[in-house]
Amino acid sequence: MSGIDTALRRLAGAPTLLVCLDFDGTIAEIVPDAAAARAHPEALQAIEALSQLPKTTVAVLSGRHLDGLRSVFPLGDPVVLVGSHGAETTAGGPQLTAADRQYLQRVEERLAALAEPPAFVEVKPYQRVLHVAALAATEPDKAAALLARALEIDAEGRPVTPGKNVVEFSALDITKGTWLGRAKRSFSATLFAGDDTTDEAALAVLDSGDVGIKVGDKPSIAGLRLRTVPELAAFLTCLARARGAR
Predict the structure, then answer these.
(1) How far apart are CA 219 and CA 199, in angstroms?
(2) pLDDT digits over 132-170, tens only?
(3) Rounded to whole angstroms, how far apart are CA atoms 154 and 157?
(4) Residue 1 scores a pLDDT above 60
(5) Is the dihedral of CA 93, 152, 30, 177 positive or negative?
(6) How confident is the model at residue 95 (pLDDT cuts 50, 70, 90)?
(7) Cβ atoms within 10 A of the Cβ of 98, count?
(8) End-to-end alpha-carbon separation of the chain, Å?
(9) 24 secondary structure, DSSP code
(10) Under DSSP, is residue 229 helix (H, G, I), strand (E, B) or coil?
């Protein structure tokens, strides 16, 4: 029996289950225009099916801010949406201090000075992010140079996270791992799937009875790997069927 088969059996039979999924690169293909991203149709159908099952909760945990996640992901309650790497939930998020706001303003100004179109700076409630995906599609060396220059900005000891064609500066030390670490305490088993560097923090809080899946080819501590978004969509479909049939 393969590792995937074993994981499916474990998750399908768990007394209570949390299915936690990253969005971009995991259940949706990464596209140059982030606003145009959409969940894979099979993944979306499987998520909806899982969310309707008893003792099963589905959460989409994204680096996007909450309003941005809502704009590209059509499902709401009972699916839990969590934005800004765990800082934003439907229950609200932490308050920024004056020092936090001043830091974000300084970073925003410095990133804006670097961001030659089509690169741009995204303003989130707790983060500022340099995006270079559209530039990388035509001038990859120039995009890489912009990211390297962004990483030279003084983060004043605050979190800086490089990702796939992005660099993110955060005012708060909140990660996907801190959110998932708290959320998973209410469940006997957790599935987490993600594709990028920021997802490693969530994978790191999983226990021996949980399942971590890395989507794509980046190095990872995940126990399992699926190469593409459609492969993960198929896994979720199998999980929904198996758990629904128990």
Answers:
(1) 11
(2) 999 999 999 999 999 999 999 999 999 998 988 999 999
(3) 8
(4) no
(5) negative
(6) confident
(7) 7
(8) 19
(9) B
(10) helix
β pairing state of 189-194 and 166-170: unpaired
Indicate left, alpha or beta for 199 from its phi (over 0: left) and psi (-120 to 50: alpha).
alpha
Structure-token pair, residue 83: 């934005």
Alpha helices in the chain (DSSP H): 3-12, 41-51, 66-72, 98-114, 133-136, 140-150, 176-183, 200-203, 229-244
Whether 116 contacts 135, CB under 8 Å: yes
pLDDT tens string 63-91: 999 999 999 999 999 999 999 999 998 75
CA–CA distance, 123 with 88 (Å, rounded to integer): 14
DSSP state of 84: G
Q: What is the pLDDT of residues 198-223, one digit of tens each?
A: 999 999 999 999 999 999 999 999 99
List C-alpha distances in Å: 243 to 11, 13, 48, 53, 240.
Answer: 8, 7, 13, 8, 5
Query: Cβ of 205: how many Cβ atoms within 10 Å?
Result: 20
Nearest alpha-carbon partner for 58 in 28, 16, 8, 30: 16
Whole-structure pTM value: 0.82
**pLDDT tens across 106-139, in order?**
999 999 999 989 999 999 989 999 999 999 999 9
Q: What is the DSSP letter of 81?
A: E
